[in-house]
Structures are given as C-alpha cells and as structure tokens.
What does this fold into?
Amino acid sequence: MNVVETVEAYCRQHSLFQPGETILIACSGGPDSLALLDILARLRPAYDLRLAVCYVHHGIREAADEEVPFVRQEAEKRACPFICRRTDVPALAAQEHASLEAVGRRERYRLLREEKDRLGAAAIAVAHHQDDQAETVLLHLLRGSGLTGLGAMRPQTGDVIRPLLSITRGEIDAYVKERNLTPRHDETNDSVQFTRNRIRLELLPALRQYNPSVVGDLNRLAQIAQTEDDCMAQWASRLYEAHVRPCPGGAGVEKKWFLSQPAALQRRLVRLLCRNATGTERDIPFHYVETIRELACKGAGKQFQTGSVTAYTTKAGLCVVVSQGVKGRRRKKK
It folds into this structure.
C-alpha cells in the first residue's frame, strides 16, 4: 500500500471519521501537518468530508508571522476554510511559572477546541506519527510511568484523532518529496532545551545503534500496553461498581476486601476513588497512591491529605473524599 492507502486503512480500522463529517486540521506548515492536510484532502471525496484548517500562533517565534500566510495558501489550494488563532505563550508561562511546552500545548488545544466547537466539527486531526509515538513512550518511560503512560498516544483521544500514527517520519518525508510539497521548518525543533527534542535528536539515534528497528518496536510496546491497560481498567471498573460505596464527600471500600486484591488493582481502585471525589486523577502522583494504599493496613482514625483529596480510615473501611475547600464531583454508580 502507498502512504494514502495506509492512512485510509488505519482511519477505517479505528473509525477516526465517518462520511459527511467536518474535520478541523491542526496545521503548522511543517512536513508532518502539511502531509496530513494533503492526505485528508485526497481522501475527502471518497468520504464526503468537510475540512477546515487552523494555525495556532503561540507568540514564541517571529517566523510564525510568515507561516500564517503560507498555511492559508496551502489550505486555499485545497478549498479548505482557514483560521488563525493567536495566544501569548511566553507571557502566560512567565505568569504561571510554567514551561513553554506545557502552556503551549494547553493553549493550542484550547484554541483548537474553540474552533472545532464553532465549526461543529466532529474531531481535531493532528499529525503525530510513529516516530512521535516512540518519543512519547521513551519520555514516559524516563518518568517512571505505568501501563497507561507506556500506551502513549491513542488513535483517538476524545475529540483528537491521529491518522498518521500508521506511518513513520521517513514515510512522511518521502511523501512530501513525491508530492512536491514545500513545508516550513520550525527552528525550535532543533533546540535541545526541550526534553522531547533531546529524545528525538540524541536518545533515539543512540538507541538505533542497539536496535535499528527501535521506532517500530516502541510502537508495538505502546500497542501492547494500550490493550493490557484497557483490560486492567475494565477489571478495576467492575470491581469498583461492585464493592465501592458512597460516603459523605466521596466513596469508600472495605479494607479487608481491598487488601485481598492484587497491588495493581489496588492502585487503580485508589485512582478511581480519587476521581470520584474530585472528577480527575490529576495531581495524584504514584507516592500519593501508595500512601493511600498503606492506610488500608491501619486502624480507625488514620488520615492522609493532599491538596485535592483526603483519605481516612474507619474501623472497617478506607474512604477517599474531596479535601475541605476543594470543589468535588462524585462519580455516579451505574
């Protein structure tokens, strides 16, 4: 199969879009997103797709001012409406004492979702490919992630679809050359200031000396982790529904039963209890999970409090509730 056929087969396998839908394409003008735009435009007639293109100007690079008209031109060549949204990432990052990477990603998806909702689009298409997936697996591995992190990027996450996860950077470069596309280069991709760039520019080339097929093998690892993570999540959810009971401000579980479960399921149950209390599992790092697990071994009246949740023990139970002063959202039992 050629690249377009490979991408089409991947989209069909994972039901990334349906005939007649509107798709918003995130395009920076680089080789990956330009190839994504071109491929989806070629698939458009067969699926009666309506495509729109959005460029997010982060306020970081002067070159972005020149990329906006370029991406507009590429969108218009393919009869796609074009939108440019602007944000000042450096100012926001300084104000929040956060990294450019984290704030840039948050703002990019916030603006893309605003445009998706305004257009009534079914999804946002982004240009992540297999080399990006390999980098993400390594990034999460270096952070000590579990199965969920090793699963890295899914074909679809909520309203974000990734049609190019079926092909490599090399295949994209060959496609760009074959189609005579003239993508722009983002010089920040060359900076080793950013962790992901160091992984791409330094770590992956070093690993290829040990295993020339490392990108494909890391993608296979991600697929294995995804399926096993899904299995574990389903198992934990069933146990949660069967054994967890509501308590004021959150939910709880019988300590004796909880301790009889494998450690892997205990950890997932703790995270589900935290999500029940606050509506999210964010800000619950591994050592918090372990501390809450350890509470189940103790008698009544023991407590552990984080910024978002409070775990405490009764004579027979372990309860996790929203911390005082934090607005929570309890998970409804089916």
